[in-house]
Write a structure and sequence with these properties.
alpha/beta; TIM Barrel; about 40% helix
């Protein structure tokens, strides 16, 4: 039975915070906004005609911040032009097994790309006049959500910009890095990404290399969150055996409902529950649907609610959040961009989730797991 209610938590908070969905800020587990800002030469402070996130639309939709991914774009996005659906098609084309995935770029290119994207986020913070902050502690995140300051969590997706000796990891941490996905959906010196394939298991190849296990231990020492999204199943279990932190998949769904290799099996979900970790719901239409159609925006919000119900059933209400994959995936038409967040919250309320449960899904669960991982 899905436990949708969180009445005790709701009763402890001021009534003004639980009056309606618009008063519940959302902190989201994954976006690729920095790639779009750089590619389209757009400002985060202007309402843009395309993409999914900018500050005006975030205010309108109630997005209080999120994990902003720094990544080395794959072959499908290196030009970073054109329709997002076409980029997704290119990402999926022929990527049925590890051997067909594009190789990792060279280290010099990867480091330069990471520096460019991090600098972009630093400039957004500097130019915001206090409206945007790169957060490094759970206390800073909570304060931003309370005060209406857009909170950026610096996240690396795919560790190509980190050397096997892990010198760059130390530098990135001191620059503000607080979350790291070991791979995107391709192999690198640390492990093997899960290719995009429908109707099969995520058990698609080898797990972490020795360097990858050393990277996990270094992240534990620095208290950097390790993100399991994009990692294949053997890599998932290698992280589970190596880490001393909660298991977290920032933007993945339930494989039982949508059997893409990018989604998580019941056994993986059980391990996340046992570690007191969490999963962020990926809004990408393909990872919501049970028919393998990865580019169809005519995907109802009810498919998102169905995934949330399943994740809550398997993990508990304290271990589920949102990981939309804004600016990197195709959103259901009813959601569109970040301004559609109230539609999702309203659908969840109609499905029986009370205000206390909605606050947990919207941001409280992320604050909890980040505090447990970071230690502050």
């Amino acid at each position: 039975m899905v436990v949708r209610s969180s009445s005790a938590a709701a009763a402890a908070l001021p009534v003004v915070l639980i009056a309606m969905s618009a008063t519940i800020p959302v902190f989201d587990g994954h976006n690729d906004v920095v790639l779009r800002l750089l590619a389209q030469h757009q400002s985060f402070f202007d309402r843009n005609p395309d993409g999914h996130i900018d500050l005006p639309r975030a205010r309108e939709g109630g997005l209080g911040g999120g994990f902003c991914a720094v990544s080395v774009p794959g072959a499908h996005r290196q030009a970073l032009e054109g329709d997002l659906a076409e980029m997704v098609k290119r990402a999926l084309a022929g990527h049925g097994d590890e051997s067909t995935m594009p190789p990792a770029p060279d280290y010099a290119y990867s480091v330069g790309t990471a520096f460019q994207q991090m600098a972009c986020l630093f400039r957004v913070e500097e130019q915001s006049g206090g409206q945007v902050k790169i957060v490094r502690t759970a206390e800073e995140l909570s304060s931003c959500l309370e005060k209406g300051v857009f909170a950026i969590l610096l996240h690396i997706e795919g560790a190509e910009a980190i050397d096997p000796e892990l010198n760059a990891l130390e530098v990135f941490y001191r620059a503000g890095l607080r979350s790291l996905g070991i791979v995107w959906s391709r192999s690198n010196v640390f492990g093997y990404g899960v290719p995009f394939k429908f109707g099969v298991s995520p058990d698609t190849g080898p797990g972490l290399t020795d360097a990858g296990k050393a990277l996990v231990r270094a992240c534990n020492r620095l208290r950097i969150m390790v993100d399991l999204s994009h990692l294949n199943e053997k890599g998932f279990w290698d992280v589970a055996e190596t880490t001393d932190a909660p298991l977290v998949a920032t933007h993945s769904n339930a494989h039982r409902l949508a059997p893409w290799t990018r989604n998580l099996t019941d056994r993986q979900l059980d391990a996340i529950r046992e570690s007191d970790g969490m999963v962020g719901l990926n809004f990408h239409v393909g990872f919501l649907r049970d028919d393998g159609d990865a580019v169809n925006p005519d995907t109802p919000v009810s498919a998102m609610v169905r995934q949330i119900d399943y994740l809550v059933e398997r993990l508990g209400i304290d271990r589920v959040g949102f990981g939309a994959d804004y600016d990197g995936a195709i959103m259901p038409a009813e959601i569109g961009d970040v301004t559609g967040l109230p539609c999702l919250l309203d659908a969840l309320r109609a499905a029986g989730y009370d205000d206390g449960a909605l606050r947990k899904l919207a941001h409280e669960n992320w604050v909890r797991v980040l505090r447990e991982t970071w230690g502050r």
